[in-house]
Structure formats: C-alpha cells, structure tokens
Specification:
This protein has nine helices and 18 strands. The chain is α+β, with helices and mostly antiparallel strands. The longest helix has 18 residues.
Length: 412
C-alpha cells in the first residue's frame, strides 16, 4: 500500500527538528568517518550528519573527537584548526576545543580565562572508535544509548574492510535497497555472475526472480528468509537481517565466505552516506570486490554522468551482454537507481507486489519507532530488554524441501 504524503515526510525528513532526525539523534550512534581517515595529530575532516556540520579528528594521543564545525567565538571553520595535544586550536583567534567540544583556552580573553571557558555554550558530543569506524552520539544527556556491537565491530582489522561514499539522495532509498532481495537477480545480474563462481547456489538469484519471503520479528528489527527452489527437491534459503535504524546485514555467498553490512546514514534530507562493511568472522578478508577500494571515503564510485545522459549508462556494454551498463561496481548500480528515483522518492503512487514485503517492514519499523518517540517514549527497538546485537546472524544455505529455514540460524 502506498504511503501518504505525511508518512513519506515523516519517514524521510531528518533536518530542522524533524521527528525522525531527533529520534535518531537521541537513540542511536551514527557512523561518521572511517577510522583510517583520521591520523593522530593530523587534519580534521568535515562531516555532516542529520543536517549538522561537524568536524572529526584524532588527537596526537590517538583519542577521537566530534565537535561542531564552527568555532563558538566567531564561527570560523575548525576544519582549518591546528590539531594539538588536548584538542583543536582555531587558527583565527586561538580558542582551543577538547575532543568533547568544550572550550579549554581562549587566549584573547582578559581576566579569569578558565572561568570564562567554563561558561561558553557549546554542543557536546560523544565519539567512539569501533570496528574501523568513528561513531558519534549527538543526543542530549550524559548517558549514550547501547552501542551496536554488530558482528564486525570486534574483529581484527585484517578481517574487515570499511568504505563509504556520499550519495545525493535521501537516506531511506538506500536502506530499502539493502532489504530488497528481488532486485539482486535483476540489477546485479552481471555482478553476481562474475563474482559467484561456477556452481555457486547464489546464481539461482539471477533465475528465480520471485523468492518466497518469510519473516520473523526480532528485538532489533526483523530477519527474513528469501526462499528460492532448486532442482532435486531442494531450495536455497538466504536469511538477512534488518537492524534499526539502517543496517542491512547480508549473508555470505558461501559457507566461510565474507558477509556484508550495508547502511545508509542521513547527511541531510536529500543526501546520504552509503557505507559498506565487508567482513569475515573466521579468517582474514583478503582482497575482494569490496576491499579493493582506492579511496575508503569515496567508494564505491557514483555513476559517471548526470540525468541528461542517463547517469553515464554504457549502452554499448549492454549490447555486449552487461545487464545494466554500470560496470564500475554493484554499489554504482544501486546508486543509479536511487538517483533515478529523485532526491526524495515519492512513495505515494507506488504499486507494490509480493516481493516488497521486506521493504514495507523497513518502513513499518522506522515509522513505529518515530511515533513512539513522538509520544514521549523510548522506541522499543532502541531499548528492548532482549536487544543483543552480537547474536545477529545472517546466513544462507541449501536445504531439503520441507525443511524449516530456521535450522540455519539455531545459534542466532
């Protein structure tokens, strides 16, 4: 069923006090920048989250900080600041900010400088360096929400790769795609064929384009199985998880292989940052289509053109057999779809089908949570008593006909 205009706005808008943005800000940690981008004592990086302009930096002692970009004094950018022991020093007048955002020096103020600094009004944020990502909590109060100990967070760096790129569309378009199983066999047909290898059951996704979907609610969101028939009375079950508010945890293509976490975080109403965490819980990751990234802050690449030339789609390549004409990366194929939907997709005139159940559940989970927040409640899926991110398991496998797919997840 299509969304109303009011619900579409409630779902997608995050700026200027919009309820969804305020709910996310208060109850969730936001990924800000790959850890590898921040050098101890090195340059600060500008980041934008929920319409807020911030800078992220790593102090000479290795600690990370997230602060407002504009200096509290005369609003010069702290992206230009010197990174000194104890914090960032604005190069305009020398005010110094520690990693918590507090002013600790104001050298151009006469009188009791320490007393003056204590009374400068600043926004204070918490930062954490976990799982190859520097995260920010932008909410109010001293107690941050439960950190999402997702399956990749405590792995050694050799077992994961983290890449990210900024996409000029609303964040929900990316989140929905991470849970849209039926698009894989169409949009990613060529990528799947090139990466699956001979005999891999994952190739069935390019043939069985209408999987049967079965769902199970979980404290963090939901998990679902996409079931596709195979010859000889067997079927391929692909179990993926949606974790509030934006994590899509995708099963490995084969036992012992690498899994992926896709998430799309809101930069502002019409921009999001797409994140790709590729990881192997049991072995070093090695070189993969995800880890072979020339720039972890701008990868996968956006489509090479604009709407006037169909976002750079290569029709000659399509004549030679490529499914989409976007050979750069599977992420590039997704980004082309988001861009073609417009800055904020219009969900009021959609005509959905049986394959869209997982997408609908993403919307339902987000709208349920934001309405609980608007009613003055802590969203259930942000503080459920059984919430344990470490137990989330996405897995695929071939099973005999009639078998319950949950046998794959008995330890989850």
């Amino acid at each position: 069923m299509p969304l109303s205009r009011e619900d579409n706005d409630l779902l997608t808008r995050v700026e200027n006090g919009a309820p969804m943005g305020e709910m996310i800000r208060q109850h969730y940690w936001l990924p800000a920048i790959p850890s590898s981008k921040l050098e101890a004592g090195g340059r600060p990086f500008r980041v934008r989250l929920l319409g807020l302009d911030l800078v992220a930096f790593r102090s000479p002692d290795g600690s990370v900080g997230i602060v407002d970009e504009r200096c509290a004094h005369r609003k010069a950018s702290l992206a230009l600041a010197r990174n000194e022991e104890g914090g960032l020093r604005c190069i305009y007048h020398g005010w110094k900010f520690n990693p918590a955002g507090e002013v600790i020096e104001a050298p151009n103020h006469t009188g009791d400088q320490a007393q003056f600094c204590r009374h400068v009004k600043v926004n204070r944020y918490q930062a954490a360096d976990r799982g190859g990502i520097v995260w920010a909590w932008l909410g109010q109060g001293e107690t941050a929400p439960k950190f999402p100990d997702l399956p990749f967070v405590d792995l050694p760096p050799t077992h994961r790769s983290v890449t990210s790129t900024q996409v000029p569309t609303n964040w929900v378009q990316g989140v929905e795609a991470s849970m849209d199983s039926s698009h894989v066999g169409v949009l990613h047909e060529s990528t799947t064929q090139m990466t699956a290898g001979g005999g891999n059951e994952r190739l069935i996704m390019t043939k069985a384009l209408a999987p049967k979907l079965e769902f199970e609610d979980r404290p963090y969101g939901y998990r679902y199985a996409a079931l596709r028939p195979l010859p000889d009375d067997r079927f391929y079950a692909r179990v993926n998880n949606f974790v509030m508010p934006w994590f899509g945890i995708i099963c490995a293509p084969h036992p012992g292989g690498p899994s992926t976490v896709f998430f799309s975080t809101p930069v502002d109403d019409v921009t999001h940052r797409a994140w790709f965490v590729h990881f192997n819980a049991t072995a070093p990751l090695g070189m993969t289509i995800m880890s072979a990234s020339p720039d972890v802050w701008n990868f996968p690449p956006l489509p090479p053109g604009g709407p006037d030339d169909n976002w750079g789609q290569n029709r000659d390549l399509m004549k030679r057999g490529h499914a989409t004409g976007f050979p750069q990366h599977l992420g590039t194929e997704d980004f082309a779809m988001f861009l073609s939907q417009g800055p904020i997709a219009d969900r009021t005139t959609e005509q959905l089908c049986s394959a869209d159940g997982a997408v609908l559940r993403v919307r339902q989970a987000l709208l349920k949570s934001v309405r609980e927040f608007m009613a003055g409640q802590t969203p259930t899926m942000a503080a459920h008593p059984d919430l344990d991110y470490r137990r989330i398991q996405s897995i695929g496998g071939v099973l005999p006909a009639g078998t319950d797919w949950r046998v794959l997840t008995e330890t989850a």
